Amino acid sequence: MRATERGISWRLFLFSCLFLESSSQGFGAQTQFICTSVPKDMDICAATLQNSVPGDDLKTTVMQLRETVLQQKETIMNQKETIRELTSKLSRCESQSGAEPGGRRKDPGSKNTMGDVSRGPADTLAQLSQTLQSLKQRLENLEQFSRSNNSVQANSLKDLLQSKIDDLEKQVLSRVNSVEEGKPGPRNETEQRGRVESTLTSLHQRITDLEKGQRDNRPLDKFQLTFPLRTNYMYAKVKKSLPEMYALTVCMWLKSNASPGVGTPFSYAVPGQANELVLIEWGNNPMEILINDKVAKLPFLINDGKWHHICVTWTTRDGVWEAFQDGVKRGSGENLAPYHPIKPQGLLILGQEQDTLGGGFDATQAFVGDLANFHIWDRKLSVGEIYNLATCSSKAQVGNVFAWMETSLDIYGGASKWTFEACRQLN
User: How many angstroms separate the CA atoms of 320 and 314, rounded?
Assistant: First the structure.
């Protein structure tokens, strides 16, 4: 290169540096610039763009921004989930605190695991009336027994219990008048309800004791269990556990007019699985059977206040199930816990749904009504065998895993036990 050309190039280089330095004064004291030699035939702007941000750097920057956006999205989702959990806990706390300020009642769908399910005055009166009717019917049975046996002791106790029931009817009538006239109720509604239900429980126990005198005159399987109220303390526990089963049939007589949902006639829990085998009708949902926490909806309609015989059969092969009401097949399905045997060493509870092994009862899921002739087999019964059970045939079989016997149950919380014969009730 000639000396003249080298001089021109050098002057252009110095001019570029001076131009960039003067322009940098508008960007603050922290801005720095780097001077780069540019060939004389190349555009200065194009060369600057070519050297400043390579393509690989652009791609890396875009990936980093994308990763940042995804992380922020995940953080937002986690925060939403936390908000939902806190809202749910707050709702449960509010539901357990009773009526809120301003007179607004609890949400009917909220759980209440602290005792009786929340009830308004009309619901309470209806359930008390139903309970009194049950007690009256049992007393009529005792009257027939005492007349046929000329028992002075039975007559005197019957008169005492009748007097107690009359007093309770007066209390209910007084409550009805108060509600109709719009008068304020007692200051402590919970305390009064507790006294009434305590009296009812005492009456149930006295009548049960009196009925024990009839036990020698009837078979041990001619009885029913009555659960008059939705509570988390009325239930019956089967004394022995179930064996491992690869097929089963569960049958029973039920009578209930509870709404919404009759509750949980029975639940079987094992260590590590509270829903090993459960029959439940909760809220406005149809009745369901759960095996290993897998669910099948059953086509039963039984909450009409009449006795109904129901059976459910199941086999572990393909999880095939069938449902029978009053001796007639009403539905079937498959893929209900296929190839999962019913596990042994668990607890079988009548009247409550177990959230933990032998406990965790929820009053809103409790069974309300009457239950009798509960049997379990470790095989699938035939259609004819189920029909014999539903029609009280002399050929009807009893369960080979669990058979309905008074001596097989422990009863808690005021659930009562009294004489029942299915065929006599049907005729």
Answer: 6
* Contact (Cβ atoms closer than 8 angstroms) between residue 217 and residue 223: no
Cα–Cα distance measured from residue 229 to residue 413, given in angstroms and rounded to the nearest whole number: 11
* Residue 116 token pair: 């009786």
Contact status, residue 351 vs residue 365, Cβ threshold 8 Å: no
Q: Which of 222, 266, 243 is nearest to 404 (CA)?
A: 222
Residues in the chain: 427
Dihedral angle computed from the Cα positions of residues 148, 150, 154 and 157, in that order, rounded to the nearest 10 degrees: 120
Residue whose entry in the numeric block shows the structure tokens 């260590």: 271
Q: How far is CA 122 from the centre of its chain?
A: 25
What is the β-pairing status of strands 321-325 and 307-315? antiparallel
Nearest CA among 245, 268, 267 for reference residue 379: 245
Instruction: Tell me how many degrees the CA angle 365-370-376 measures, rounded to the nearest 5.
Output: 85
Give the integer Cα–Cα distance in Å for 379 and 313.
Answer: 8
Find, among 235, 267, 195, 164, the residue nearest to 417 by Cα.
235
Hey, is 331 helix, strand or coil?
strand
What are the phi and psi torsion angles at 397 (to 5°)? Answer: -95, 165
Which residues does residue 289 pair with via DSSP β-bridges, in sequence order?
279, 296
Coil/strand/helix, residue 117: coil
- Amino acid symbol at 26: G
**3-state secondary structure (DSSP) of residue 308:** strand
More confident position, 155 or 115? 155
Rounded to whole angstroms, the Cα distance separating 171 from 165 reads 10
The span from the CA of 369 to the CA of 356, in Å, is 24
Could you say which DSSP state residue 382 is in?
A: P
DSSP letter (8 states) at residue 105: P
CB-based contact 247:381 (threshold 8 Å): no
Give tens-digit pLDDT for 64-109. Answer: 777 777 777 776 776 666 677 666 666 665 555 444 333 333 333 4
Q: What is the mean pLDDT of the chain?
A: 75
| 97, two tokens | 């605190």
